[in-house]
Amino acid sequence: MPVEMKENPSLCYQCAKCSTGCPVADEMDVLPHQIIHLLTLGMEDRALRTKTIWMCAGCYACAVRCPNDIDITSVMDDLRGAAMATGVPCPAPEALAFHQTFLSDVARRGRVHELRMMGEYNLRTKRPFHNAALGPKMWLKGRLHLFPPRAIRGFGKWMKKLWHR
Amino acid sequence: MASVTPRVAFYPGCSLEGSSGSFEASLSEVFRVLGIERNTLKDWTCCGATSAHAVDRRLHLCLNLRNLALAEAQGYQEVLAPCAACYHRLAGANHTLQEDKALLASLNSETGFDYKGGVKVRNVLDYLANVIGVERIAAKVKHPLSGLRTVCYYGCLNTRIPRMASFDTVEYPMSMDRIVRGLGAETVDWSYKTECCGASLFLTAESVSAKLVAKILKDAIAHGAECIVVACPMCQNNLDTKQEEIRDAFKIPRPIPIVFVTQLIGLALGLEAKALKLSQSFVPFEKVLV
């Protein structure tokens, strides 16, 4: 299944500048320039199953440095979205759960309630006491609010039309 | 043609109203002292970072189109987004929508808004250094921060928007350095100015973000910095709140406070630590100052 994307991977001449500057390259199973290579070979299915797309920190170092002006960070975004939509096995379930939690929290009020978001994320990943020490410390510092922000009228309904998952 | 000062909408974003209240408080105090008006965008909603752009490009564009359209309809010419993630999303989406009129038209009809592309998104460093101006801030300094050795940490999102002209040098920005020097403090050249701290992995791959944080802390300390100055709530949170554990795990010799550039400006302008919410940081900064 071809992944819908704005970028053109076939502009790549495999200089690997993206991979050499990537701060999380050592966490990846397939390096960024190899992901682009997979796409030029029409092997999207392989790319969708990599750990790489979930490890990308989204820092845009590759995107602003690519000599062929390929926004590689956005390619990673498109692949992640396609992996999520097609439901291929995800090698980093925490990242998947985080994005689902985050967006469902945004859809709720229009603004993120960090405490609720962190709680739901722990439930989704079945680690109720994950970061359990950090939460209270942040609350004592006045950095976590117990009560959610004011909901923006009509926003939830508006966002549901755009986001179904 | 006489130049008209643009009306600027303040877009706080979720972090400034949540875990990074100290960024919001210090910015608002600094603006008050400098006599700068601040009008918050009415009914603003989340820019979608960290997740919308990461999994659904269309959703990302629509969420940001909504805020841009609100700003335009409320009569603003510019949007000031202090959070680096919000700035990146708003400015990046704005650039895409302004360049692709067909896409803008299609998303307008899908979302029920009527954005014409007439808004500019401002970065907080750009606003402080170039719109307000380093000289105007320096002129108001009551307590010069002489003797304070700092490194300025820009992180990844403040200057890296693909294909869009940046307000500062992408690989080695200097706007924050210029501001901090204007306060009388020293800023040191170092190697991790724009290296990513991995904040987007803060909750999902802790060991990875810890490793990136450790590199940044180590390099700052190796350069003799007494604090790391930041302009991004994600960076502040990531470098500060788990620092103790990270120092232990990576044998980092001493704590190093992570301070918002607006907190540093506030101190130089003579504002109290309390008003700048310095105590919200896990690594105390007050000790460095006495």
Question: What's the structural blueprint in terms of helices and strands?
Answer:
The complex is a heterodimer of chains A (165) and B (290).
Chain A (H helix, E strand, L loop, with lengths): L16 H5 L10 H9 L3 H5 L3 H4 L5 H5 L6 H15 L6 H17 L4 H11 L9 H7 L14 H6 L5
Chain B lengths: L7 E3 L2 H4 L4 H14 L4 E2 L11 H4 L1 H17 L4 E4 L2 H16 L1 H11 L8 E4 H16 L9 E5 L21 H8 L3 E2 L18 H17 L4 E4 L2 H8 L2 H7 L8 E3 H8 L17 H4 L1
Parallel strand pairs in B: 1-2, 1-3, 3-4, 5-6, 5-7, 7-8
Helix pairs in contact in B: 2-12, 4-5, 7-8
Describe this structure in words.
The complex is a heterodimer of chains A (165) and B (290). Chain A is built from ten helices and no strands. With 165 residues, chain A is mainly alpha-helical. Chain A folds into two domains: 9-86, no CATH class; 93-160, no CATH class. In chain A, helix 7 runs antiparallel to helix 8. The two termini of chain A are 20 Å apart. The model of chain A has no long low-confidence stretch (mean pLDDT 94). With 290 residues, chain B is of the alpha/beta class. Chain B has two domains: 8-123, Glutathione S-transferase Yfyf (Class Pi), Chain A, domain 2, CATH 1.20.1050.140; 134-289, 3-Layer(aba) Sandwich (Rossmann fold), CATH 3.40.50.11810. Chain B has 13 helices and eight strands. In chain B, the strands form two sheets. A four-stranded parallel β-sheet of chain B has the order 2-1-3-4. The longest helix of chain B has 17 residues, at 57-73. Chain B is globular, with a radius of gyration of 19 Å. The model of chain B has no long low-confidence stretch (mean pLDDT 96). The chains are: A mainly alpha (165), B alpha/beta (290). At the A-B interface, helix 5, helix 6, helix 7, helix 8 and helix 9 of A face helix 3, helix 4 and helix 9 of B.
